[in-house]
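Lecture notes, continued. The same structure-token format from the folding unit now serves as the input rather than the output. Read the line below as a description of shape only.
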């Protein structure tokens, strides 16, 4: 056993050596960038990659190999897209070179060589070099023939559209998109967004830079309730070779919405009065006002409440809270109430808007739980802020120019002109700089410090909710000359933007929201939920069960984990495996009468893309590892000679290591047992 003996079994094939010709039939082979050999066409004719492979295999260049009596030559295709299947499923079909070779190696035991015709653009399965390593151990070389151009075709490709899952009827929705240009010049074109059912469309002029990605967005106003199918498209450009990726369809739901807003202020300043009026007149908003006047006491009248909602069931109904020049102490909020507001934002996905004032009461919030939510650092030595004799204005940042919050015009072209024409402000908060992880939408047009321009319009996410900070108190002056047009639009957009996630799927007893709201296959979706009892208070006992039905009809159940605290928050995660509509049904235990149903749309992203360059580097690596060769399409004649000179395949050997086999150990134990029993029977001890 110390010499490591082996039992060797040699299998000598009784058939001819085999040569496998593996032909790629994936969707990427429909790309028209393959040039036929001059010997075959007489001219450099450009055809699709699939046509190139078909013509070459039928030509006299390969016929001598097929007629060779020494070998058995067979063709085998791989990675053909499924036929007559759901488009979402078909979009997930890709190229798996590794599996194709391993399957051939398993089914054919007498291989002499593998001829691989492909563009090398693999996107599923293991890396192809793994299969090349297995062929090398069997002394089987790969002769790889790259098909297609190694440079991307001149093309414009709408690679991504990240539309929200729903929008409010009558309000603008921002549709971000990405276009990849491989043209060698800038293209001035039109992006068109069209409703497939009604024919209503909206256009926007854009300029696509040569050879780069363009990120933009277009506005769309939803007019009807229910699901709509929209198509985003760009015209076919001169010199472009692929047309079908110039458009992309997606769905978006329009729905009516009723928001609950709480406005808290310490004095009836102009900003408070006009925000209250704007929200009070909005038919989609129910507003409650809490005016904590230090001398006169709480305000009274229609739309006013007399005290802060202390019970969770009363506070959790608010989608957005506007917090004006209010602080901690007598005539203001308590530390407990500040903690409740923070919990409302982080655990219930509500939004909070900070609008400081000249009295500087908000500085007392910095040492409370709400201080963590304020997205800027304030100068505590200048609590009264900065007053100026002349008006100053806001300048939008690059983030602000593309934000839906700052979209005051009907088109993106009009928006910069509107902001320049807005009346300015005479006072602003003592902001030092924005905190990390925030998004600055607008800055002071003239004031700056060592950190740059003073940020005055800043947003951030906090837990599941959103935060907005407006560092001046003169947005009400935007009404000058236009009345309610821009002022009402701005605050209406703020309220709806902050409550978007919270109202993805809101029912009587359950509120469900998820991130991301437009996942792709392979993404992990985080489910967050809030559950309430029959009195509207956060649920304290009970399991929140979610049934998830995939587009293919398979259903699985998961129990969401309850978060710590008293807010009735639950969360869980699951993975998107395919594109299409995922049905989500949530219920407290088995009580589905008060449950909620919603649909999560997973965007289909085709693995196989036409127009992409071939990957000869992948094929070169495979050929090198297997001791084969990369052969250019113009030199196919040399392939015949090289294969004919290959040695015969080695007989298959199976080696059983006797020194480490369990059978050997069992025999030794058996013999020792017989020896021991024999000694006992013989009376030898």
């Amino acid at each position: 056993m110390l010499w490591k003996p082996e039992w060797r079994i040699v299998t000598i094939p009784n058939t001819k050596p085999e040569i496998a010709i593996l032909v790629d039939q994936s969707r990427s082979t429909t790309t028209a960038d393959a040039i036929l050999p001059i010997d075959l066409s007489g001219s450099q004719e450009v055809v699709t990659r699939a046509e190139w492979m078909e013509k070459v295999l039928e030509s006299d260049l390969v016929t001598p190999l097929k007629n060779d009596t020494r070998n058995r030559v067979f063709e085998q295709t791989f990675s053909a897209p499924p036929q007559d299947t759901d488009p979402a499923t078909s979009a997930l079909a890709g190229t798996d070179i590794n599996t194709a070779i391993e399957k051939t190696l398993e089914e054919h035991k007498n291989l002499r060589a593998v001829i691989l015709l492909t563009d090398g653009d693999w996107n599923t399965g293991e890396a192809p070099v793994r299969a090349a390593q297995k062929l090398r151990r069997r002394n089987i070389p790969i002769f790889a023939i790259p098909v297609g151009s190694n440079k991307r075709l001149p093309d414009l490709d709408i690679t991504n559209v990240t539309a929200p899952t729903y929008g409010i009827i009558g309000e603008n929705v921002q549709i971000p998109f990405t276009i990849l240009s491989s043209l060698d010049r800038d293209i001035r074109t039109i992006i068109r967004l069209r409703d497939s059912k009604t024919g209503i469309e909206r256009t926007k002029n854009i300029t696509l830079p040569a050879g780069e990605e363009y990120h933009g967005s277009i506005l769309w106003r939803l007019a009807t309730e229910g699901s709509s199918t929209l198509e985003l498209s760009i015209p076919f450009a001169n010199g472009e070779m692929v047309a079908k990726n110039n458009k992309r369809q997606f769905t978006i739901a329009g729905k009516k919405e009723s928001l609950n807003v709480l406005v808290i202020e310490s004095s009836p300043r102009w900003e408070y009065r006009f925000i209250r009026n704007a929200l009070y007149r909005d038919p989609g908003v129910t507003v409650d006002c809490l005016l904590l006047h230090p001398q006169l006491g709480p305000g009274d009248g229609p739309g006013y409440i007399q005290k802060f909602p202390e019970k969770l069931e009363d506070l959790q109904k608010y989608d957005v809270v506007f917090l004006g020049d209010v602080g901690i102490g007598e005539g203001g909020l308590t530390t407990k109430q500040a903690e409740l507001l923070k919990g409302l934002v982080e655990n219930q996905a509500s939004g909070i808007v900070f609008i400081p004032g000249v009295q500087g009461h908000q500085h007392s919030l910095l040492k409370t739980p709400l201080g963590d939510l304020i997205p800027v650092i304030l100068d505590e030595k200048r609590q009264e802020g900065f007053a100026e004799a002349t008006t100053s204005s806001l300048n939008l940042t690059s983030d602000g120019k593309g934000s839906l919050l700052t979209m005051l015009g009907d088109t993106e072209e009009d928006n910069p002109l509107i902001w320049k024409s807005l009346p300015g402000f005479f006072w602003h908060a003592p902001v030092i700089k924005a905190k990390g992880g925030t998004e600055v939408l607008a800055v002071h047009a003239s004031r700056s410090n060592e950190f740059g321009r003073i940020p005055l319009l800043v947003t951030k996410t906090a837990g599941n909710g959103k935060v907005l900070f407006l560092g001046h108190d003169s947005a009400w002056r935007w009404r000058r000359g236009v009345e309610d047009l821009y002022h009402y639009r701005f605050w209406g957009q703020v309220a709806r933007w902050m409550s978007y996630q919270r109202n993805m799927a809101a029912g009587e007893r359950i509120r469900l929201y998820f991130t991301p709201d437009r996942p792709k296959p392979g993404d992990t979706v985080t489910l967050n939920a809030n559950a309430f009892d029959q009195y509207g208070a956060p649920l304290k006992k009970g399991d929140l069960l979610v049934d998830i039905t995939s587009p293919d009809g398979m259903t699985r159940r998961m129990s969401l984990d309850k978060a710590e605290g008293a807010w009735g928050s639950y969360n869980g995660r699951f993975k998107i495996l395919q594109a299409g509509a995922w049905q989500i049904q949530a219920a407290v235990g088995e009580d589905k009468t008060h449950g909620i149903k919603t649909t999560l749309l997973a965007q289909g992203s085709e693995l196989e893309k036409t127009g992409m360059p071939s990957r000869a580097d992948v094929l070169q690596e495979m050929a090198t590892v297997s001791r084969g060769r990369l052969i250019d399409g113009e030199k196919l004649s040399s392939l015949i000679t090289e294969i004919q000179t290959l040695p015969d395949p080695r007989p298959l050997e199976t080696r059983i290591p006797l020194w480490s086999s369990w059978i050997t150990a069992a025999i030794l134990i058996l013999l020792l047992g017989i020896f021991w029993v024999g000694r006992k029977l013989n009376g030898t001890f």
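Point for the exam: The longest helix spans residues 662-681.
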